[in-house]
Amino acid sequence: MSGKVFEILRFEKLDSTMDKAFELAKSGCGEWTVVVAEEQSMGRGRRGRKWVSPRGGLWFSIVLKPKFNPIFLPLVGIATSLSCAEAIEEKFGLKTKVKWPNDVYIDSSKVGGVLVEALYRSGKVEFAIVGVGLNTNVHPQVKGLDAKATSLSRLLGREIDNEELLEYILDKLREYYLMIPDQRENIIRRYLKHMMFKDEIVKISINGRWIYGKLLGIDDLGRIVIRDEEGYVKHLNVGEVERVRRS
Amino acid sequence: MSGKVFEILRFEKLDSTMDKAFELAKSGCGEWTVVVAEEQSMGRGRRGRKWVSPRGGLWFSIVLKPKFNPIFLPLVGIATSLSCAEAIEEKFGLKTKVKWPNDVYIDSSKVGGVLVEALYRSGKVEFAIVGVGLNTNVHPQVKGLDAKATSLSRLLGREIDNEELLEYILDKLREYYLMIPDQRENIIRRYLKHMMFKDEIVKISINGRWIYGKLLGIDDLGRIVIRDEEGYVKHLNVGEVERVRRS
After folding, report:
1. Low-confidence ranges of chain A (pLDDT < 50)
2. Cβ–Cβ under 8 Å, residues B244 and B203
3. A7-194: which CATH topology?
4. Domain map of chain B by residue range?
5. How far does A72 lie from chain B, in Å, by closest CA?
6. d(Cα A207, Cα A225) in Å, to the nearest integer?
7. Do A46 and B77 touch (CB under 8 A)?
8. Does the pLDDT at position B29 exceed 50?
């Protein structure tokens, strides 16, 4: 293979790396264009929530142009959160978990999250943007940061090299991404090793109501799979998962 | 039910009703906002092709916010082209066909097409834009119009009331749209009645190569279903369909 795969564009400050990447994709930038911002003023999380993104953290979005069937799109988020979790574990020796679909945890504290947006056009994905936010060198007391959040520098007691971590994640993600068309079982198997609450009783909120069941894993389409109290196996594509503490 | 369902916004001239609707959807407009342009300077067809849109035609885009599983999104295009075909047949007594996925034909001439774009965000469709272009009062010799295209006014020898036709289509589409979550077989059955080349031998171009087979219909996800020469049944989600003339 010749030439570089990743085109990394760095910005001091952006509203959101998602919006910048979306804009670049619309004007025809190449696949694996990566937008990195030192700081985001309007970083987004899932479900329209704000993502606090001060200097020090690793905030980036990647432009992808998946040729595979759009039904596999959720696996892009699955592959990305897995890449982040594995990268942190391998580079820093910290045990990581992935909370379905795309949050990265260390113990019970969130260190990062992944967001996937895509433009669908008549049966095909025109492009997808994967956004990653990792609390690397974020000060834990930073205003607005979720009380349950933590950062790598806080846990390790030292500064993280964002650039090095970014490249490590990108290399990993690229490998998994190429597996989506026909080696999904590989991604799923590795994701399950990191999956939070696996084999535990969880509840999942869907449009305001809760579904209870034992968390069995994820399926071939990136959906969460639970066995409910009546023994039915359910595959869900959205929802917030929480552990149920039985009294 | 109270209040009107459709919010119809009319413009003299737009680059594309798709872009305007997309912009409105991004800034939070309501579902069933409909953008109509007298004329489009950069109307789009499928696969990035230009759609010639001079004055006289019916060019519009609809903002939808589907709550159903994103895998059913192709059925929005299926439902829309079906609505156009049925509306033309019922209002004007012209026999119509739908060429999979979303083109509307009368005999072997194209009178319209449908395009679906959507913004996907972490497992959900944030919004979908359905674009419709119908050659109602377009002069058949209009510069740039495909030689195989025709118009309703040409076939009927009279002027078409665009506003009336638009409302007829919207009412129909709304009915079908509400069937997508759990009455898809209803949409499919009606679509099959209008489906071009059904039960004939066709070829479908996919990434430059052709797949041959007998066209059996469409499935629950809006994919075209063919039985290939070796007897295998294949479900395809993109491609251009052509009839094969056996010599």
Report:
1. 1-2, 247
2. yes
3. BirA Bifunctional Protein; domain 2 (3.30.930)
4. 7-194, 201-243
5. 10
6. 17
7. no
8. yes
The per-residue b/e assignment along A42-74, b for 16 or more CB within 10 angstroms, e otherwise, is: ebbbbeeeebbbbebbbbbbbbbebebbbbbbb
Per-residue pLDDT tens digits for A146-202 = 668 899 999 999 999 999 999 999 999 999 999 999 999 999 999 999 999 999 999
B124 and A238 within 8 Å at the Cβ level: the answer is yes
CATH, domain range B201-243: 2.30.30.100
What percent of chain A is predicted at pLDDT more than 70?
A: 95
The ipTM of this complex is 0.82
From chain B, pick out residues whose CB is under 8 angstroms from the CB of A124: 238
By C-alpha distance, the chain A residue nearest B223 is A123
Q: Choose the mutation target among B23, B114, B122 for the interface with A, i.e. most A CBs under 10 Å.
A: B122
